[in-house]
Amino acid sequence: MEDFIIPAGELEYRVHYFAELVSTNDHASSAEYGEGDIVVAGSQTRGRGQRGNFWHSAPGRNLTFSLVVEPRFLPACEQFLLSETVSLAVVDTLRRCGIESTVKWPNDIYVGDKKIAGILIENDICGTVLSRSVIGIGLNVNDIDFPGHLPNPVSMAGISGRDDWDLPGILSAFVRDFDTRYYQLSTCCTDRITTDYDALIYRKNIPSRFRRPDGEVFRATIRRVEPTGMLILEKDNGKEEGFLFKEVELIIAL
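Now predict its structure.
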């Protein structure tokens, strides 16, 4: 892959390709990058994921990139809308490729019970609004051989049976899908975003097991996600309880 430009909507997205980086999010956090810049790495030595985990990606086989935006129109208290926006863009792109997916709260992308993509968003806040956001995305594309310690990975190749997906083409498709969703966000079409996100929540309305940070396991059912990003679970006794990120983990039994 080489550097190139992706025109989409009113914003021009500039792709900066590096054969290897420690972390695309770390690199994109530099002041030299602004809205519309995309840092892509053929390989990351310490790519970061949610919950302090590291993102595995075979060199040259998948997409690992970070997109910089400056959503100054978005109040900091509504930042979860950006997470929903990015999640939906990934789902939209996979659907273009014939792959249906869901969103495991808050923003992991799943096909069936397996994870195909992860998202890590790091926001800067100025006053009451978001001044700058670095959106890191890892999408499993052509990889079919994953390390044994990864619990449930899957790739586009593993689902489709073909391992020759065009990485620049998929990135370009994602950018255009993101631009469409970002336009919805910036023009206050947030009802559409929240409705679409709600319809794609993984295991919504299905009784499941969850684990608290102290190790306690309990049964509950996902009912909804609040605008703040809080996950609302209904326990077996019929009472609802809200959880923020890192306060609860869905247990997936394969």
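Helices lie at 24-28, 80-96, 156-160, 167-186, 190-199.
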